[in-house]
Recover the amino acids of this structure.
């Protein structure tokens, strides 16, 4: 039934219709390298829907389906239940949703799946807005970032998905970034081996929505970690570990100046943002150290 | 009316799946999007594999035993320039496609 018309390395073909320099495209290749063929993938409508295919063409070698935007985790839990009923415990069920499908619209179904302890791997690729529909702000958009629905900069800060996941006390939750692929793949392997729900929140820069040159995708991801705008940590069986802690945070200007979505900020706003980033970083570190 | 019923009961439609299903694994020719192509200086290359690791389209192959050690599949390379930006030796340059004539 599955015609293979193209040979490529890995489970995703080379000619994927994602934008040039897309962080998501790099992410799914690295994730599927670890999970392998024995996987069922659930994708909501969004940027990742280009993998589940249009018409009769598909861009992924593993089976899967495209559900609705709000029920990725619920669909994954259903697939898991069906596999369990058949006695299949080796297949991985992967929910692969964007930040809109996770922190905004899909939060209730994700919360339900985490509470029921369904054995699914849930990966949230965070490009910090609804990129597929034209860069509308989501609740994961950072403070002062410009989108088409917040043209003067977002007045509020982002939602902390990891703290929501940790509040459910799930067996494994982690943040990752595409610049550190070894760390990302180690976390995906751990999530695969976890008996219970696992969540990985990955920072994936988007050249179209963040308005930077496509060649700087990895640079932007790296600078986000170095300036403290993104923190790499994991939470396993009640213990939190900080994977990478910069000795001294770089000024947040380094991150802002790369991107067009922060263009035109006044000096006061930059100082305000710097203050906010450092406060948030220290608060997060403090909270994690109390859990460790 | 009766005929229709008979039709339905006598010849059930044989469906293996419900709804639209993608069954062809294909690749689009994304090489046509490219405005600039990566050009590798093979003498300066140290074969570290950084470009291979970070290429979003997965078109770069490192061949350690050959003189032209970096092989790029230009049918699918989108010309994003991540390889040129991340190369530790800066031995990859982005060359405009048109200038070749």
């Amino acid at each position: 039934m599955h015609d293979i018309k193209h040979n490529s390395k890995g489970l995703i073909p080379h000619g994927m219709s994602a934008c040039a320099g897309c962080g998501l495209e790099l992410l799914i290749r690295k994730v599927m390298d670890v999970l392998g063929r024995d996987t069922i993938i659930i994708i909501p409508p969004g940027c990742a829907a280009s993998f589940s295919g249009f018409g009769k063409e598909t861009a992924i070698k593993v089976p899967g389906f495209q559900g609705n935007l709000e029920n990725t985790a619920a669909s994954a839990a259903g697939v898991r239940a069906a596999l369990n009923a058949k006695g299949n415990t080796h297949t991985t069920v992967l929910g692969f949703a964007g930040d809109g499908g996770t922190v905004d619209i899909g939060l209730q179904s994700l919360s339900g799946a985490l509470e029921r302890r369904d054995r699914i791997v849930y990966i949230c690729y965070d490009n910090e807005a609804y990129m597929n529909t034209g860069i509308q702000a989501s609740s994961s958009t950072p403070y002062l970032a410009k989108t088409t629905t917040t043209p003067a900069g977002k007045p509020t800060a982002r939602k902390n998905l990891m703290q929501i996941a940790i509040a459910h006390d799930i067996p494994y939750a982690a943040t990752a970034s595409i610049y550190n692929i070894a760390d990302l793949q180690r976390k995906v392997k751990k999530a695969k081996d976890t008996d219970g729900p696992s969540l990985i929140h990955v920072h994936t820069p988007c050249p179209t929505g963040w308005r930077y040159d496509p060649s700087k995708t990895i640079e932007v991801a790296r600078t986000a970690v170095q300036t403290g705008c993104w923190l790499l940590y994991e939470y396993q069986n009640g213990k939190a570990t900080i994977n990478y802690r910069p000795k001294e945070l770089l000024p947040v200007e380094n991150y802002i100046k790369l991107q067009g979505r922060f263009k035109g900020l006044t000096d006061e706003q930059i100082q305000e943002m710097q203050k906010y980033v450092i406060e948030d970083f220290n608060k997060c570190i403090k909270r994690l150290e109390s859990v460790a | 009316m009766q005929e229709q019923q008979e039709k339905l009961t006598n010849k059930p439609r044989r469906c293996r799946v419900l709804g639209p299903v993608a069954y062809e694994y294909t690749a689009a020719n994304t090489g046509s999007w490219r405005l600039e192509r990566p050009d590798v200086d093979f003498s300066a290359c140290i074969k570290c594999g950084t470009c291979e690791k970070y290429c979003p389209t997965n078109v770069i192959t490192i061949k350690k035993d050959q003189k032209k050690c970096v092989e790029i599949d230009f049918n699918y390379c989108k010309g994003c320039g991540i390889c040129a930006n991340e190369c530790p030796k800066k031995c990859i340059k982005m060359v405009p496609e048109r200038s070749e004539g």
In short: Chain A has a mean pLDDT of 91. The radius of gyration of chain A is 19 Å. Chain A has one domain: 23-291. Residues 30 and 181 of chain A are 8 Å apart (CA to CA).
